[in-house]
Design a protein that fits this description.
The chain is α/β, with parallel strands linked by helices. It is built from eleven helices and ten strands. Strands 1, 2, 3, 4, 5, 6, 7, 8, 9 and 10 form a ten-stranded mixed β-sheet that branches. It starts with a helix and ends in a 5-residue tail after the last helix.
Length: 319
């Protein structure tokens, strides 16, 4: 209980300082902790650049830190260990509403959206010489659906479900991207799910030793998924993402999303979003190219923070 009180006080103090720092009355620095992801992933380097851009143009002092990514970051916001974070919008939805793999955990409702960042595409990888040509063909094969309780697993189960399949119809392995790629390289796996920005490093590395394909999802199944789950959007993966693709792949994506604690001061949230949108060209990471006002308000699974909503309404991309 004492630890909880200290955390809550820290967030309160940040908000109080923000009134001075961003309200135009002084130069008091506001310190914020930004949970990103693993050092080998996308969230960590991108988050570090985002923090640097905001720090360079405001009197905020954002420290980006490595983390276990989406589920861990949502929990850090809930616990008061972080002021802002990057998460998948589907994981955010599960935690906020107590659905999916979060249904047996306490909900986390003290978080709000700052902006969508970029799509994280669901990729179903098979060997080019495989007889697996559709999602239905996964039945009877060895399939990695991601780590137990991960966002990848949730995506995989939802996709299998709309195709009338369940894990009982196949031999399921619960492997991360790298382990899945290694298993397919060693011919111990027939297919694996990836939910990540394209191109994914594990897929690229595997493509050096095995010829690959990525399965398309049929249009009616994409529509069914989007009707059932508001956080999905339709995307195309093509040779600009992976040179081994000979034709475009139709699939779905969730959105990497910048979120904040609802305790964050409105002006602080406004300044963060305004700076990232207006100074996005200073972000050298490839995903920085997606940070655009029109993209930032798409596929929102939990309401905007008031400061973010104010900025997006001012520039006319949000009603």
């Amino acid at each position: 209980m004492k630890k909880r009180i200290v955390k809550c006080f820290a967030l309160f103090l940040s908000a109080a300082l923000a009134l001075t720092a961003c309200g135009g009355g002084g130069a008091q620095e506001v310190r914020l902790t930004f949970a990103t992801g693993g050092v080998a992933g996308t969230y960590y380097p991108l988050g570090g650049e985002m923090a640097a851009v905001v720090n360079n143009h405001t009197n905020l002092n954002i420290t980006s830190v490595a983390s276990g990514a989406s589920a861990d970051n949502v929990q850090q916001i809930g616990n008061g260990d972080a002021h802002m974070a990057i998460v998948q919008n589907d994981v955010m939805s599960y935690a906020f509403y107590g659905t999916g793999f979060w249904e047996d955990r306490p909900t986390i409702t003290n978080m709000a959206t700052l902006m969508s960042l970029y799509p994280e595409t669901v990729q179903i990888v098979v060997a080019a010489d495989s007889d697996i040509n559709s999602i239905e063909d996964l039945a009877g094969n060895r399939v990695s659906t991601g780590a137990v309780g991960s966002g990848v697993e949730a995506n995989a189960l939802q996709i299998l479900g709309v195709h009338g399949l369940s894990p009982d119809d196949m031999t399921v392995l619960h492997l991360g991207f790298g382990d899945s790629a290694n298993a397919m390289r060693d011919r111990q796996l027939d297919a694996f799910f990836v939910t990540a920005a394209t191109p994914n490093a594990a897929v690229l590395e595997l493509a050096v030793s095995r010829d690959l394909r990525i399965l398309s999802i049929a249009p009616d199944k994409i529509a069914a998924l989007m009707n059932s789950y508001a956080f999905y959007t339709q995307v195309t993966v093509d040779s600009n993402d992976y040179t081994f693709l000979t034709e475009p792949v139709q699939t779905i994506a969730v959105q990497a999303t910048l979120i904040a604690s609802t305790d964050m001061d409105e002006q602080v949230a406004y300044d963060i979003v305004k700076t990232l949108i207006e100074k996005a060209d200073e972000i050298s990471h490839g995903r920085g190219a997606y940070i655009l006002a029109e993209n930032a308000v798409q596929s929102i699974s939990v309401d905007f923070h008031p400061g973010a909503a104010r900025y997006f309404r001012e520039i006319g991309v949000l009603n």
